[in-house]
Structures are given as C-alpha cells and as structure tokens.
Amino acid sequence: MKKHASGIRPAYIAQYFVILLGSCIYGVGLTVFLQPSGVPMGGIPGISLVLEYLFGAPIGVMNFVLNIPLFILGYRVLGREFFFTTLFSIVTSSLFIDICGPFLPLYTGDTLLASLFGGVIMGVGFGMVFRVGGTTGGTDVLSKYFYLRRSIPLGTTSILCNAVVIAGSAIVYKSLESAMYGIIVTYVSGVVIDKVVYGADRQKNAFIITGRPREISAAVMKALHHGVTAMPARGMYTGDEKTVLVCAVRRNEVMRLKGIVAQADPGAFMMLYDVSEVLGEGFKTRADE
Could you tell me which residues are beta bridge partners of residue 234? Predict the structure, then answer.
C-alpha cells in the first residue's frame, strides 16, 4: 500500500475520518434528542447524562474522564491500535458534545419521537465507527476484556452494563417511563448499528441432510448458480450414511431452493437460518465493503 511523504497510509486517514464523522453524528443524537428530553441510555454516556442532570457537569468532559480507566485497561489488554482508535473516538465525540452541543437546536417535543430519532442517529454514528474497526470505549472495552479473560459473551456484558445504567438513571429521574424510553433507544440504535456495519446483506444459509447429494447439488448449481459444500454424516437413529450439503442463498431464492430439494429428494431434512453477511463469489466481495 502506498504512503504519503509523511509516512501515513491513506487507509488510516480514511479510517480516522470516518471515526471523526461517526463520533460527531453520535454526538448530535445524544445532544439534540436525548439530553433535552431526559431520555437515558446505557454505558458511560448514560452515566454522563445522569451527572449532567444532577450536578450540571459537562457531558463531554464526564464522558472522557470516566473512560480514562477503561483506556488504560484497553491498552493493556486489547492493544495499541484499539487504544488509539478508541481514544480518538472518545475525544472527538466529547469535544463535539461540549463545544458544538450548545449551538445545536434542541428537540423538546414528544419523548417517544426523541427516543426513536436519537436511537437512529446514534446508531448511524456508532455503526460508522464500528464499521472501520473503531470503538466508542465504555462498555465496549469491558465487554472485550471479559470475553478475552473470562470467555463471557460480548453481548452479555454489554446488556448487563446498559441495564444497570438505565435502571439507575430511571431512579435518578424518578420515572419508570424514562427506563422504557432508554430501552427503546438501546434497541433502535442496536438495529441501526447492525444495518450500518453489515448493510442489507442478510441472507440465508441452508443445511440439507440428504441421501441424494449429487442430484440436489447439481440442481442448485444449475438453477441458482451458487456453490455447494458436501460433508459426510451418519444418522445416529437409523445408522444410515448421509451427506450434509451447505449452501448460502439470497432471501429471494429460498422458495426456489425448497422446490429444488423437494423435487430431488422429498425425504431430505433442511434447516435454514439467517446469516448477517456473505462474502465470496456470487455474493458481496471484500472490495464492495
């Protein structure tokens, strides 16, 4: 990969530019919609909102200060690159919230609309940061730490941390409804993050257990133009030798696949499940990301 005279790779410039843009977008969602409507959120930003509500402490400053011990943990456990991308994201979002936030128009209308739009906008910002390999600090660091050290699933730690912060925020705000709105924000932003990171490339993967693998494979490759992988298997109930076929298909090809399998082997056993992303011939390539 070519470098500029300064020795900085263009890919790094693009990565940090996207992190900068995503962090600012996330700051808009928090400042314009959540803060003026009193809607809580999880993680370190949620704690920062509570401190601003109680003591008038600047959200950006609190967000940065509370992340300092997590920066140290992230550097020691997750490495240098993770540390710098996370630090850059936190610094830019914190500066944006405190410096640009006071000049942004604030939404003080319907709380549900504030939760929905705030969740969407923050999800777009978070998703942009995640898509280029960055993180937003906070519970992301804790989640990865406990996953590497204790094999605790990433989602488990994240859900627990967010739940505790949102519940605590509801106590401070003295409103059960605020916790409900916080759950809406968390869910909506999570869905949008997945869309931004993985795009609309949610396809289907098929596991087909059959005694007629050649017939099914030939029909799938001819009609759908997708490759098929075969693995030998044995039915433990009958003891019969079987073959497991694995094939990724687009969502609009599922019904055709069912017809192909039913015609080639009416006794075949097929399982279909969602996959968030498919890379390879016939689908998206890495150059498309």
Answer: 241
pLDDT attached to residue 2: 47
What is the second-level CATH architecture of the domain 203-288?
Answer: 2-Layer Sandwich (3.30)
Count CB-CB contacts under 10 A for residue 171. 12
Q: In what order do the strands lie in the sheet with 229-234?
A: 229-234, 241-249, 203-210, 269-275
User: The tokens of 38 are what?
Assistant: 């009193």
pLDDT tens digits, 83-112? 888 889 999 999 999 999 899 999 999 999
- Could you tell me which of 35, 15, 16, 63 has the C-alpha nearest to residue 121? 35
Q: What is the pLDDT of residues 146-171, one digit of tens each?
A: 877 777 766 677 788 889 999 999 99
Give 71-77's long-range contacts (Cβ < 8 A, gap of 24+): 71/137, 71/141, 73/141, 73/142, 73/145, 74/137, 74/141, 74/144, 74/145, 77/144, 77/145, 77/148, 77/149
pTM (predicted TM-score): 0.73
The alpha carbon dihedral of 93, 94, 95, 96 has a sign of positive
HSE value, Cβ hemisphere, 13 Å, CA-based, for 248: 14
Q: Where in the chain is the domain with CATH 3.30.70.120?
A: 203-288
Question: What are the tokens at 47?
Answer: 């704690």
